[in-house]
Amino acid sequence: MVNYPRFTAEEAARLIKNGDVIGIGGFSSVGTPKVIPAALADYAVEEHAAGRSFQVGLVTGGATGPQIDTQLAKAQAVKFRTPFQSNSDMRGAINSGQIQYFDCHLSMIGQDVAYGFLGDIDVAIVEASEITEDGNIILSTSVGISPTLVQKAKGVLIELNAAHAGKLTGMHDIYLPEMPPYRKPFMITSPGDRIGTTYVKVDPKKVLGVVETDIRDNMAGFKPLDDDTRRIGAHVSNFLVSELKRGGIPKEFLPLQSGVGNIANAVIGALGDNPDVPAFSMFTEVIQNSVMDLIMKGRCNYVTGSSLSLTEDALNMMYDNMDVFGERVLLRPQEITNHPECIRRLGIIALNTALEADIFGNVNSTHVLGTKMMNGIGGSADFARNAFLSIFTTPSMAKGGMISSIVPMVTHTDSSEHSVRVLVTEQGVADLRGKSPSQRARLIIENCAHPDYKQLLWDYLRLAEGKGFHTPHTLSKAFAMHMAFSETGDMHNAKF
Predict the structure, then answer these.
(1) Cα 369 to the chain's mean position, in Å?
(2) SS3 of residue 106 by DSSP
(3) Which residues of 263-287 are buried (b: 16+ CB within 10 A; e: fewer)?
(4) Contact assessment for residue 354 and residue 374, using Cβ atoms and an 8 Å cutoff
(5) Could you tell me the pTM of the whole model?
(6) Which residues in the chain are classed under CATH 3.40.1080.10?
């Protein structure tokens, strides 16, 4: 049996040096280490007070918990951050230029680490639910890029979390792609196919030590559904039923991917409640509450993802019903869940959200007014680019109606018209497949724009139509609605 050294969080934090690049395990704010990063933030504050520099690079699988992003950002302890965050303190530091931020497709960040594109990983910090007798790591409620970080880091610190001890064993499928040109096909032909091990293999010589914890993930509950969110969910559900009935989707249905948040939760819930939708499986990144409810109801057959992003009550329900969930839930590295090969082979229906979309079908998922980073692209484009059917959703307005989410031209493009096949707002559905730019514009304005903004958008479109343009833009006016908001606080004040 391998016996790793035991440390306090404070002792572990002091093994990290100024300038180190730190790999943080976990995904979507769960299964992330908690006490060592918090102790590292305190250590940084001490070092700064003593007049010494202390900053680290931060490489994660995705969003992390407040013990990482909040505390390290407030401690001014982060030099650069990648690839995805959802924390207001970290976001503020990024947008102020205090932290350099590299946004990246989540399918690619593990490969970037593996190839050394981000430099060496000095220390990986991962959360485990158990450590096997031969020293290998059974992860907790997420995987992310933890296996790659453990493999590539010079040293590894493990937070052993008793809150999940013995509960998650067997729920992981750990497999990492070989390096090209020796990469083999992933033998996944259905969401439940296993191709790896239940643990992360680690070289015991690299393990610096273990810090014991007993802390659950702190996932905020979802806001009550409003009418717009319900309508978006219903529109998506009804559209997919119509596709099913006309033969555009196989009668067995297809696996679903769903993004994060209230709208995603509502859409999955609406699909599960629709009796015309057969029981389905999911091949996704983040497993949310609605999915677990559908498994209990027999409406979701199987789900594989990289993260159990569950509230406390949903996690308790899973632990109380492991006879059901143990056979229907599987956690994988994001190098697999987000890999184009798997997405394309399985024929995923991808459901993601947008900040704004333009009348030609381009989507902005990341930047407010083209300049301020919100969260990052995440895995939305991994799925959108490779899905059987890619659907983006957004409420038609924001900021109490002062912003139209449908605009003449997006201020930043994350998923282009080539990847966005269907656009849905609470107003309706625009099926963009097989449509020219002018045809797409008409559909989006008529079906998706809020009535308060329709005339403005029609006015913009008519500026350029009939002038021999394939895509009828008027560049001098393309951002007039954004400029109106920037200058007056209301897009209604745009003039065309």
Answers:
(1) 21
(2) helix
(3) bbbbbbbbbbebeebeebbbbbbbb
(4) no
(5) 0.96
(6) 9-213, 227-493
pLDDT per residue, tens digit, the chain (496 aa), is 789 999 999 999 999 999 999 999 999 899 999 999 999 999 999 999 999 999 999 999 999 989 999 999 999 999 999 999 999 999 999 999 999 999 999 999 999 999 999 999 999 999 999 999 999 999 999 999 999 999 999 999 999 999 999 999 999 999 999 988 999 999 999 999 999 999 999 999 999 999 999 999 988 776 777 899 999 999 999 999 999 999 999 999 999 999 887 888 888 988 999 999 999 999 999 999 999 999 999 999 999 999 999 999 999 999 999 999 999 999 999 999 999 999 999 999 999 999 999 999 999 999 999 999 999 999 999 999 999 999 999 999 999 999 999 999 999 999 999 999 999 999 999 999 999 999 999 999 999 999 999 999 999 999 988 888 899 999 999 999 999 999 999 999 999 9
Pairwise CA distance, residues 360 & 133, whole Å: 57
CATH among 2.40.50.140, 3.40.1080.10, 3.30.365.10, 3.40.50.720 for 9-213: 3.40.1080.10
In this structure, whether the domain defined by 227-493 belongs to CATH 3.40.1080.10 is answered with: yes
**285 is a catalytic site residue:** yes
Rounded-to-integer distance, Cα 37 and Cα 70, Å? 10
Which member of 285, 335, 356, 417 is catalytic? 285
